[in-house]
């Protein structure tokens, strides 16, 4: 994500590399590259202009920092300005003093509004809240059924009256949430293919009737430049309180993320990063800035890892590795842990320098994991515990190969790779502490 933008920005700092400080002259050219990169990334022109001015001022006013190259310093300045434009910190979802908190979802047809209702409901439930969804998109065929299906999938109730008056649906939906003691009620609303008066009037009526605590504009990141106009139109009529930027997992350019806050003064609260209901992340301006600049996103990575991995599990695994008790069963566990962390692809892309990894390479890695898992599944418990059994016996290896639908040499490679890895761990664990014991154990 944001590959196009970060690649272009790299050019800007390359031009500053090797120079010893930021000056009026050399900044000129770097700024031109930044400007071009942002425009190419479909950032709105007004937003770009203001941004460039702010970066120029900050850069020229900055002190020379010892030991820091001008290109690094410039990256930092651009990073900080990006963070500023996108709103400094994450702004959490509102919470009404008397429940239910009413969230109105607005947006164009196809922006991902209905899907995002379900994602948000699931997110809130994971926070220990009790949400209700209200099917109010009477305009797009099948939207109501779609929400009901999603509701069943995540086991969160959906209120629906069929295709009647959207204001009535919203009113009764909120009432139902109140009666059922829900903390949150999420109102799906009708979108249109483009901004139109009827849609706005309808949303205004819904707003006036239920007085939502949050009006979230759902924006498809792929619309780029258009995000500025869209945000402005909705904000003028409805007074949005925030936005959710969807489809950031695809081959999108960064433009929309920069425009929304600039234009409306309201924060992006979440980002959609996939079609699955789990694919919703809180929006963090500093992390997004790092991503745009191709600095990787270590923070998200660490957080995701913490959330998905049972830390106790990970600690005992580390200990096992160090004491060489690590066997194929542990290896399998470890692979499943990696899987649980979401698609390997998504995670790898978050790591610095990995942004350019190709789909092909990712697929290969994932296929390799799947193959290893199949082979391990065909091993007996003793073989998993004691991989040397396999190393010594061709007939055992052949049995595993046949059982898992692989070739003999695939199994041999897995076993020898595993042994090599285990030896390495053993050496690391024992190194220094117990000299002379390196050769022991089996
Ligand atoms: P609505 O008309 O605004 O209600 O749009 P939908 O919720 O039906 O979404 C339109 C399409 O976008 C569907 O195919 C969704 O699966 C897809 N979609 C929604 N959010 C995301 C996202 O974050 N990433 C990706 N890749 N697809 C998404």
From TrEMBL:
Membrane spanning stretches: none
Keyword Translocase attributed: no
All residue ranges annotated as the SRP54-type proteins GTP-binding domain in the record: 267-280
Residue ranges the record marks as coiled coil: none
Record field: catalytic activity: GTP + H2O = GDP + phosphate + H(+)
Span list, region Disordered: 379-407
Binding positions for GTP per the UniProt entry: 107-114, 188-192, 246-249
Pfam families tied to this protein: SRP54, SRP54_N, SRP_SPB
SMART domains: AAA, SRP54, SRP54_N
Lineage: superkingdom: Bacteria
Record flagged with keyword Hydrolase: yes
Subcellular location: Cytoplasm
Signal peptide start-end: none
Keywords: Cytoplasm, GTP-binding, Hydrolase, Nucleotide-binding, Ribonucleoprotein, RNA-binding, Signal recognition particle
Biased composition (Gly residues): 429-442
UniProt main location, coarse: cytoplasm
Enzyme Commission (EC) number: 3.6.5.4
Record family assignment: Belongs to the GTP-binding SRP family. SRP54 subfamily.
Entry's free-text remark on domains: Composed of three domains: the N-terminal N domain, which is responsible for interactions with the ribosome, the central G domain, which binds GTP, and the C-terminal M domain, which binds the RNA and the signal sequence of the RNC.
Cited function: Involved in targeting and insertion of nascent membrane proteins into the cytoplasmic membrane. Binds to the hydrophobic signal sequence of the ribosome-nascent chain (RNC) as it emerges from the ribosomes. The SRP-RNC complex is then targeted to the cytoplasmic membrane where it interacts with the SRP receptor FtsY.
NCBIfam families cross-referenced by the UniProt entry: ffh
Complex formation: Part of the signal recognition particle protein translocation system, which is composed of SRP and FtsY.
Name under which the protein is recorded: Signal recognition particle protein
Organism of origin: Thermostichus vulcanus str. 'Rupite'
Lineage summary: Bacteria, Bacillati, Cyanobacteriota, Cyanophyceae, Thermostichales
Gene name tied to this protein: ffh
């Amino acid at each position: 994500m944001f590959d196009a933008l970060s690649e272009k920005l790299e050019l800007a700092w390359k031009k500053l590399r090797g120079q010893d400080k930021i000056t009026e002259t050399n900044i000129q050219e770097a700024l031109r590259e930044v400007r071009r990169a942002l425009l190419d990334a479909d950032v709105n022109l007004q937003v770009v202009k203001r941004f460039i001015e702010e970066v120029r001022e900050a850069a020229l006013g900055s002190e020379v920092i010892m030991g820091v190259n001008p290109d690094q310093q410039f990256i930092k300045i651009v990073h900080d300005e990006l963070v500023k434009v996108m709103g400094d910190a994450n702004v959490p979802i509102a919470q009404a003093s008397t429940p239910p908190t009413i969230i109105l979802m607005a947006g164009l047809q196809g922006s991902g509004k209905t899907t995002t209702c379900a994602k948000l409901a699931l997110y809130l439930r994971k926070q220990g809240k009790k949400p209700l969804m209200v099917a109010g998109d009477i305009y797009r065929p099948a939207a109501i059924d779609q929400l009901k299906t999603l509701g069943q999938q995540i086991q969160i109730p959906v209120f629906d009256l069929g295709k009647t008056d959207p204001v009535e649906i919203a009113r009764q939906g909120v009432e139902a949430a109140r009666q059922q003691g829900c903390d949150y009620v999420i109102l799906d609303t009708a979108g249109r293919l483009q901004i139109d008066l009827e849609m706005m009037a309808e949303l205004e009526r819904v707003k006036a009737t239920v007085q939502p605590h949050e009006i979230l504009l759902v924006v498809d990141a792929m619309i780029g430049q258009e995000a500025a106009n869209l945000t402005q139109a909705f904000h003028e009529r409805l007074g949005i309180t925030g936005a959710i930027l969807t489809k950031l997992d695809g081959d999108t350019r960064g433009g929309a993320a920069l425009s929304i806050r600039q234009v409306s003064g309201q924060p992006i609260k979440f980002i959609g990063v996939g079609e699955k209901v789990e694919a919703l992340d809180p929006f963090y301006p500093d992390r997004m800035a790092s991503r745009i600049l191709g600095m990787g996103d270590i923070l998200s990575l660490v957080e995701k890892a913490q959330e998905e991995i049972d830390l106790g599990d990970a600690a005992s695994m580390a200990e096992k590795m160090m004491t060489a008790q690590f066997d194929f069963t542990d290896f399998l566990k470890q692979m499943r842990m990696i899987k649980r962390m979401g698609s390997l692809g998504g995670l790898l892309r978050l790591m610095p320098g990995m942004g350019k990894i190709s789909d092909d390479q990712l697929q290969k890695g994932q296929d390799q994991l799947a193959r290893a898992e199949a082979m391990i599944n065909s091993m007996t418990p003793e073989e998993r515990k004691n991989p040397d059994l396999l190393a010594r016996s061709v007939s055992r290896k052949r049995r595993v190969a046949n059982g898992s639908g692989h070739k003999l040499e695939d199994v041999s490679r897995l076993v020898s790779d595993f042994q090599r890895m285990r030896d390495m761990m053993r050496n690391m664990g024992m190194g220094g502490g117990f000299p002379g014991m390196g050769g022991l154990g089996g």
